[in-house]
Write a structure and sequence with these properties.
Length: about 220
């Protein structure tokens, strides 16, 4: 069905354009990153408002392209929704999550000091101990539901290019590391391996809670 849908849509747009895009960006992560980087400030604001409708890789690339102010705003709004949707949380849990929220400043998502990252990380682990691993992943790691647990949205042009790449192009490898053993992979069907040959990544978005820790491993499907 997916192949048939792609074929029907391909008949309505220049096939050469889709193939050229697939050849120019032989890695789907780079293609999604390029799409996010092409968005205007107004478009980024719009996509940020519906960021949880996207797969996790899109969420990360949208915020990579966003300003530190917008990054902080998105994460704080996510925490606010989490609290609003769980009125049964006890006072102490709400208090520590509020304290964690207060650390989610633009500086944390730009060039944070070691002290700022440590303060957030300490509170994040305290929150994780209270709410459990599943909620901790939702709240502080994937910025919403895991892929495969909801009907996600993808821009049609990027979706088609990625499908065509899978059919006709030898998919390139992502060389930047994208996981750590502490928090695992952003895709629940993959496992983190330190023998993947990837290049350690120290930028943002990285790994760990709120994507603020270095990435030392590579995610391998079915490993």
């Amino acid at each position: 069905m997916v192949f048939l849908t792609c074929l029907i849509v391909l008949l309505t747009i220049p096939t050469e354009l889709v193939l050229l895009r697939a050849l120019a960006e032989p890695d789907q992560h780079q293609a999604i990153r390029g799409w996010a980087a092409s968005l205007s400030s107004a478009q980024l604001q719009s996509e940020a408002r519906r960021i949880q409708s996207y797969p996790v890789v899109y969420r990360r690339e949208i915020l990579r392209a966003a300003s530190p102010d917008l990054r902080a705003s998105v994460w704080r709004a996510h925490v606010d929704r989490y609290l609003a949707e769980r009125p049964g949380l006890d006072v102490n849990t709400v208090a520590i999550i509020d304290a964690l929220r207060a650390t989610l400043t633009p500086e944390l998502f730009d060039t944070p000091t070691d002290a700022e990252k440590a303060a957030t990380n300490t509170l994040a682990h305290q929150v994780a101990d209270i709410i459990g691993p599943d909620d901790a992943r939702f709240l502080m790691f994937t910025l919403g539901p895991d892929d495969g647990t909801f009907a996600s949205y993808e821009p049609l042009a990027v979706y088609l290019t990625n499908k065509v790449r899978g059919m006709f192009v030898v998919v390139g490898q992502t060389f930047d590391c994208d996981c750590s053993f502490d928090n695992g992979c952003f895709t629940i069907s993959a496992s983190c391996s330190y023998s993947s040959g990837c290049t350690p990544f120290f930028g943002w978005p990285g790994c760990g809670y709120f994507w603020n820790e270095p990435c030392y491993g590579g995610c391998l499907a079915g490993w």
